[in-house]
Amino acid sequence: MTLETFLQQLANGISLGSLYSLIAIGYTMVYGILRLINFAHGDIFMMAAYFMVFGMVNFSLPWYISIIIVLIATIALGVLLERVAYKPLRDAPRMSIMISAIGASFLLENLATYLFTGVPKGFPDITFLTNSVTIAGVSLSVATIITPVVTIVCLFLVLFITNKTKIGMAMRAVSKDFETARLMGIKINRVISTTFIIGSSLAAVGAVLWGSKYPSIIPLMGVMPGLKCFIAAVLGGIGNTTGAVLGGFILGMAEIMLVTFLPALTGYRDAIAFIILIVVLLVKPTGLLGEKVTDKV
Amino acid sequence: MMNKIENKNNKTKRYAANILLAAVFIVVITLIDQNLIGDQYIKRVLNLSAIYAIVAVSMNLVNGFTGLFSLGQAGFMAIGAYTVAVFTVPINYRASIFYIVPQNQVLAQIHLPFFIALILGGLAAALVALLIGIPVLRLKSDYLAIATLGFSEIIRIVFTNLKTITNGALGIKSIPGVSTWVIFIVAILSIVLIALLINSTYGRAFKAIREDEIAAEAMGINLFKHKVMSFAIGAFFAGIGGGLFAALLGTVDPKQFYFTMTYNFLLMIVLGGMGSITGTIISSFIVTFGLEFLRFFDEPLAMFGYNITFFRAGFRMVIFSILLMILVLFFRKGLLGQKELSWKLISNIFKGKNSNKKSNKGGAA
Questions:
Q1: What pLDDT shows up at residue A294?
Q2: Does the structure's ipTM exceed the value 0.90?
Q3: Residues in chain A within 8 Å Cβ distance of B154
Q4: Over chain A, what is the mean pLDDT?
């Protein structure tokens, strides 16, 4: 293998890892607050990609306006999902909430199959993202270079919101103790909606970057990234935003390196995330940056 | 005194009714088996319902009775189905099935009777369940949902890649079929075994874990052991169901066991009632027949000369997922909740007694 190929794959790994990170933040925040695996998060990501296709292809809007519309539509979808599927079940057994999450995910997948058909749609070409540049003999698309930057900026934004603002303080309180926070007068529903807004907008950003890199959009495109990003969140320590980003990077890197060094195992690239999950749960169940939580009786 | 006589009288009545029901059941199944009533289509859907009932009840054992959220049923079925497929296809057909990549030399020589292959499939599924369950079930069972959902995807990837054993994406054809009676007897046997397990001390421990893990542990129940046990036994019966599924369809390929198949079983146990075996059996038949008859939603429909535009491919699954959402949001208890169907329950419903009061007193009749 030449140095160029290696560098190329390294860049791909970093960029795939940052895409995973963007989605993983949404999982980890919702889990931190509701203790719920938001199974539909991957499908929100998928819908965002379709919104982009609609904005740019069907309504032929320029990309910067499309992105704004995609952000708004995805956030609306995320908040709607929370209102319809999770809010009515807030005091229900956990099993019911999980089934509702699965149902919502399945509904979005089926709705997308029904509305947009299972035939892959091409993601619109955002020329400024798909242009390629050559650095040190390695040809990379702008999207590959820009993705990690966007992820880091998003991470700092989320950290700023959770650590420095009032709503962020409320979010931390709710994730520490749901009931007490409610008794202290924190508006639980507003906090939860904010969490879903942040998660969905990151999923929308992720979808735009993902589409520029892998431009084939199908209704089930969110399933595998969704599962993997939850694993990334577990790897980093569930509930921890920085951990989710770290987990995402490690996962993306591991996947690309497997393909690079052991090309015979390319068929198993989707399996590596689950092996990582099993290893993490065996060795350090709290994840890399997670704190130890004790169950309260 | 009067009460006692009435009770005894009722008991004989119920006994007679049970025998009558069993007799009717035997006659109907034999007639269908001999193709005397119904057509091939009805027969096939009935067989499918019985197979789905095994898998749904096995899923209810894990999800409804033990309170673990497992989504791996399609994967466990795949293991059972492939075991039956690999070992029961007649040896002289095999070269023509594995025409691109030849079958593994050792496996190509082995042919097993159907029942041994079926049990082997169940055991293989249980073994895989142990491998997943032992690391994952030590922790809070949230991770089980992701691990099992992921597993049922991985198993498909593995089966697509292990071409010398599974023939990859082409699948295995010419699996010998079985009669309706075999399917129904295996289904009844499996469900009775699960019911016996649930009513044993182990079953009571499972229910205690479902209700409150911490309290159950304080009562001396070994959480980890019981969770792994429930999970592995659930996988065993899903494997059995998968084996029958392969024999019924006559062909297996990795695409059949897409993880969305598990959602069918999820709908069945939610509709029937999480924690009700009879409810699950009834809903398996309702859902399987429903999914077949709802197929007309996928066909274009013209009414009064207009084409109704929303009748097209995929509409059936949209309805299916909306039904699942409505059930879990508004009718969380499903048909039977945690009760079991019995003559007592039926007569109570007809007498208009408040059956909710009964369940508070603790119980399945």
A1: 56
A2: no
A3: 270-271, 274
A4: 88
